[in-house]
Amino acid sequence: RPRSHTVTTTSSSFTTNLSASSSTLAYDREFLRTLPGLLMVTEIVLGLLVWTLIAGTEYFLYPAFGWVMFVAVFYWVLTVFFLIIYMTMTYTRIPQVPWTTVGLCFNGSAFVLYLIAAIVDASSVTKELDSHNYNSWAASSFFAFVVTSCYAGNTYFSFISWRSRTLQ
């Protein structure tokens, strides 16, 4: 006697969403026209300026400038990473990550550590240390405070976004 074979297949919504969303790479050029987008580009440009001004000197002889270099390079790389995530709208394809909380923690920590680094940078700049590096260190100190204010602005916008998500 012939047997009836029934095969049942199921697909999870995760696989369906993953295959549907990963087929095209989105690009959000409007993000750069928002204030958080402009602040992020400013953080990247001026953050690069901070660490190149220090890297062009003999900063390794002074531990304080090593700390400033660490903070500047670390947050420069992470800011470039987050800009790519926002520009490609990757955050929409990974809904499991609480992006508003991640953004708030990132910008808040960047603000605090950059503020500490800017203060360390400014307090370490003296003509007595090394006169031919003085101008570079003074300029890096100024730009470190400007980058700090940009991260403060993005922390504010991240907080507003996070707050509106938690109230829903």
UniProtKB/TrEMBL annotation:
Q: Which residues cross the membrane?
A: 35-54, 60-85, 97-117, 137-159
* Single Gene Ontology BP annotation: myelination
Subcellular locations according to the entry: Membrane
Q: Which domain of life is it from?
A: Eukaryota
Q: Which GO terms describe its cellular component?
A: membrane
Pfam families, sorted: MARVEL
The MARVEL domain sits at 31-163
Q: Which GO terms describe its molecular function?
A: structural constituent of myelin sheath
User: Is-annotated flag, keyword Isomerase?
Assistant: no
Question: InterPro entries in the record, alphabetically?
Answer: MAL, Marvel, MARVEL-CKLF_proteins
Name the keywords, alphabetized.
Membrane, Transmembrane, Transmembrane helix
Could you tell me which PROSITE patterns the record lists for this protein? MARVEL
Annotated membrane topology? Multi-pass membrane protein
What name does the UniProt record give this protein?
CKLF8 protein
Q: Which organism is it from?
A: Lophotis ruficrista
Q: Gene that codes for this? A: Cmtm8
